[in-house]
Amino acid sequence: MNTLGLSMILKMGCICTKEHLEINGKRYTVLERLGEGGFSCVDLVENTSNKKKYAVKRIVCHSADDEKITMDEIRYYTKLKHPNIIKLVDFYFTNSKEQTDPHATSEAFLVLPYYKRGTLHDYLTLRSFNRNYLNEKDVLRIFLDVCDAIKYLHDFAPDPIAHRDLKTANICLTEQTDPILMDLGSCAAAKVQVCGAQDAQKLQDLAAERCSMTYRAPELFHVESYCIIDQRVDIWSLGCVLYAMMYFKSPFDIVYEKGDSVNLAALSGTVSYPGETPFCEDMHELVRFCLKVDPSQRPFIDAVIEKAKEAMNKIEIVV
After folding, report:
1. What percent of the chain is helix, strand and coil (3-state, nearest 5)?
2. What region holds the Protein kinase domain (predicted)?
3. On the CB side of 175, how many CA atoms lie within 13 Å of its CA?
């Protein structure tokens, strides 16, 4: 990466003001805001030279801890190489002298590929308006590709990785509806040894901040004082993603929208299915297979892939 740094230039037009970013010598025009979260926002930008569009994730850091978390995210982007995991195009950290926010210590700009189809969440929301269900084969095709990305993380050497915030909004779709796993800011070592109430509370607080409630594994709602949390938190989230691909939203989104406790619903493990459904019982069984409340009874990713392939084989035989 060269040392030209990042400068932000406001260029006045006759009707509106357009923001420009210069990141490591490349100039981008900000076109629109794509999304905003508690820790960052994402803008659609266009490279002024080749007119190619990208997504720029901006992360404002208010402390040394924030900076470490952001650098960890960048490291995950740079070391993970898988066709179903998003790639980092470029990045830059501002320094304190470049800050316009007096409360910020620094700001990170991450240049990422732009997928104009949007996320799996966007895709499912559009289809939900007229109950346009995906067919079983397409559901399983997308699901197996997501599983392959998760397997890559869980098998990563020398230290396995858990995503910890797997959800439909963190899965982009290519023009061919191939899934691309994104937002690696929640990634962490797959296995965590919890030793005492202080450790438990720290992990529980982190999960509350970084892991979306309606896709969060039960063991992260109430972390026991002495336990091991492992990569099977992602398997629970996979079950929620699979259910969402079938019925447009996580089973616990439905609980949340009713105003009921997602925490209690997750701990009970009770998931309901519509009375009329285009999906076979094998699909529901695959969801149940992932949504085991007791993490020690929950399968690892290889078993999930095997079961999903069995379901796909049955569908292809019938077709």
Report:
1. 40, 25, 35
2. 28-312
3. 2
Architecture of domain 120-318: Orthogonal Bundle (1.10)
Domain ranges (residues) in the chain? 6-113, 120-318
Backbone angles phi, psi at 67, to 5 degrees: -65, -40
Catalytic residues: 165
C-beta of residue 301 within 8 angstroms of C-beta of residue 150: yes
The residue assigned the tokens 């269900």 is 133
For 6-113, CATH number out of 3.40.309.10, 3.40.1400.10, 3.30.200.20, 3.30.70.20 equals: 3.30.200.20
pLDDT tens by residue, 108-149: 999 999 999 999 999 999 999 999 999 999 999 999 999 999
pLDDT digits (tens, 9 = 90+) for 191-235: 999 999 999 999 999 999 999 999 999 999 999 999 999 999 999
Q: Which helix (H) or strand (E) covers residue 26, if one does?
A: strand 26-36
Residue 94 C-alpha from the chain's centroid: 25
